[in-house]
Each structure stands twice: as structure tokens, then as C-alpha cells.
Write a structure and sequence with these properties.
With 235 residues, the chain is mostly beta strands. It has a single domain, classed as Trypsin-like serine proteases (Thrombin, subunit H, Beta Barrel). It is built from one helix and 15 strands; from the N terminus they run E-E-E-E-E-E-E-E-E-E-E-E-E-E-E-H. The strands form four sheets. It has a six-stranded antiparallel beta barrel. It is globular, with a radius of gyration of 18 Å.
Length: 235
């Protein structure tokens, strides 16, 4: 959700979700750059809890630039980390920020059970006095790496009699691997065909590289990544 300059319609959105992490004692809001739409990043509203009333003060925005090698054309360029003012910490978020460490984050494997938690735009309400985001917990199964992009993985789902017809607003949502009990990524985009859904999400290992570069004050970073491809040969 974003602030407007219009006093009669102070809040609006073009769809998208954000979540808050605690990486080495530093707090960041994680989301997709494209979810900003026509808004400036300073207009984004991140509250103290899911249906909160206190708005976090924003300090800076970070995102990758000047891609090289495999990052050229990659969706890693769509990842955004937002830092907060010094007075915004664990107490402000009521200890709900997700703690990032080797025991709590990791990559997925094909067929792992995934949960995606985000706000569906078309069934959410933002009015002058009525703000009611519709958060959905959606179950997917990991479908393996997305070959054209080294940071993306794919997932698929089928829903029985879904009350929604698209996944608008899911961008920026956290993707939790229920199989490994770890945060495994962030949703970039998704689509539906009747009751079937496809999801593309950024592996959290790549988001980790961005966070650690920010924390360490590194302006440039590069890293090697091993992607386990599923065995597609017939048995």
C-alpha cells in the first residue's frame, strides 16, 4: 500500500506484497521493484504488524544495478530491500520479523511443498476509511529451476473451486518451504488458467547475497551458484 497526495483518497496500490526480515540484527522490507508501479519508494507503507496502525519510517532502498554475466536479464534485478530508520527494530515489529540465518532459510528441491502468503489485489479493499487487504495462504509444489534465469524457481498448484481467478498482488510475497521448514524465496509473478496456477519465485539464496552486501557496505558483489537440475531421463 502507498500514500497518495490526494486527501480524499490517501491510500492506493497497484498490487504487491512485502515482508520484513531480520538479517544479522538489521531489519529490511523485501519486495519486488515492479510492485511500486507509478509510486515512489518513499510512499510505501509498511506497518508494525499485518493489520497494523503504526507506519515504519523508511531510510533507504537497495536493489541490484549494472548486471554482469548470468545476472543480465535476470529477475534478480527486480528484488528490492528497504531499510528502516534507527528506531524501527524488533520491538516495533513485535518480534515478528523473520530471522535470516542458515537454519531458517534455504533453497528448495523439486516436489517440495511450498506455502505462499500474500495479498490478492482484486479481492482487497482500499477506501477512504476502509482498508481490508485479503491475505491468502496458497499451497504450491516446487517444479524445479527455471532454466532461462538462474535465480528463479517454478512452482505449480491446482485449487478446488478457487474464489479467485488470478494471482495479482502475489509479487513480493514470501515463499516458505514446508518440507524443509525454511524460507526459500520471494514470489516474482504468477498466473492462473482456470483452477491451475503457475508461480515463479526468486531463490532466497540470491536475496541473501543482496542483504549481506548491504550489511557489509559492499557496492559490488559476485558469487557462484550451483543449481541442482532434476533428473529428466526415463528410468
Amino acid at each position: 500500500m502507498f500514500e497518495n497526495d490526494d486527501a480524499n483518497w490517501p491510500y492506493s496500490t497497484e498490487g504487491g506484497t512485502a515482508f520484513v526480515v531480520n538479517a544479522r540484527g538489521k531489519f529490511f522490507g523485501i519486495t519486488c521493484k515492479h510492485a511500486f508501479g507509478s509510486f515512489n519508494w518513499r510512499q510505501i507503507i509498511i506497518t508494525d504488524k499485518k493489520h497494523g496502525r503504526q507506519i515504519a519510517g523508511l531510510n533507504s532502498i537497495y536493489y541490484p544495478t549494472e548486471p554482469i554475466n548470468s545476472s543480465v536479464g535476470s529477475d534478480i534485478m527486480d528484488v528490492v530491500a528497504i531499510s528502516f530508520n534507527d528506531d524501527v527494530g524488533a520491538a516495533f515489529f513485535q518480534d515478528s520479523a523473520y530471522i535470516v540465518d542458515p537454519e531458517t532459510v534455504g533453497s528448495s528441491s523439486k516436489n517440495d511443498q511450498l506455502f505462499v502468503y500474500g495479498a490478492l489485489r482484486d479481492s482487497s479493499t482500499i477506501g477512504n476509511s476502509d482498508i481490508a487487504p485479503n491475505f491468502a495462504l496458497l499451497e504450491f509444489a516446487d517444479f524445479g529451476p527455471y532454466t532461462p534465469d538462474p535465480v528463479l524457481r517454478t512452482a505449480k498448484a491446482k485449487f478446488e473451486n478457487p474464489e479467485f481467478s488470478n494471482l495479482n498482488g502475489i509479487s513480493g510475497s514470501p515463499v516458505f518451504n514446508y518440507t524443509s521448514r525454511k524460507l526459500c524465496g520471494m514470489a516474482i509473478r504468477g498466473g492462473m488458467n482456470k483452477n491451475a496456477a503457475d508461480l515463479y519465485y526468486v531463490d532466497f539464496s540470491d536475496i541473501n547475497e543482496l542483504l549481506f552486501a548491504i550489511i557489509n557496505g559492499t557496492l559490488r558483489t559476485s558469487y557462484a551458484k550451483t543449481i541442482a537440475q532434476p533428473n529428466l531421463l526415463p528410468k
